[in-house]
Design goal:
The chain has four helices and six strands; from the N terminus they run ααββαββββα. The protein is an alpha+beta fold. Strands 2-1-6-5-4-3 form a six-stranded mixed β-sheet. The mean pLDDT is about 95.
Length: about 140
Amino acid sequence: MTMSPDQMIDFVDRLYAATGVGDWDTAEQMLTDDFVAYEAPGLPMAGEYRGKNGLRDLYAKVMGLCDVVGLDRIETTTGKDHAVTILCLRFADPSLPPAEICEMFRFRDGKCCAIKPYYYDPAPFIVASKAKAAI
C-alpha cells in the first residue's frame, strides 16, 4: 500500500498524538512487527529500539534522561516512502537551549517501519540529560 503525501503527514500527526498522551496501544498498531527506531552513537540513548514496543522503550528512556516540557512540531515534508518532521524539544530548565531535530519516518504497507532522528547539534540534549542526572 503506497501512501499519499497527505496520508503520511496525517499518519505522523496521529502517531505524535498517540505517543504524546501515552496511548501505546494505538501507537503500536501503527508500527510494523519489525519496527526499529535508531538513535545515533554519542547520544545518551544511543542504540536500536526494535519491535512494536521499541518506540515505547525509546520514549521512556528519553523522558527518563531529561525533562522535556514541549515538543514543537514545525513542519512535516514527504518523499516516496518517508516523511520528515522538523521538531524543537524544549526542556524544563529555561536556561537550557532547545534541541533542534528532524525525525525521518519510513513507511511500508501503511505502517511505520523505522524512525531515525537527526540532531542539528546533539549538545543541548546531552547538556539537558547531564543536568537531570546531577539532580
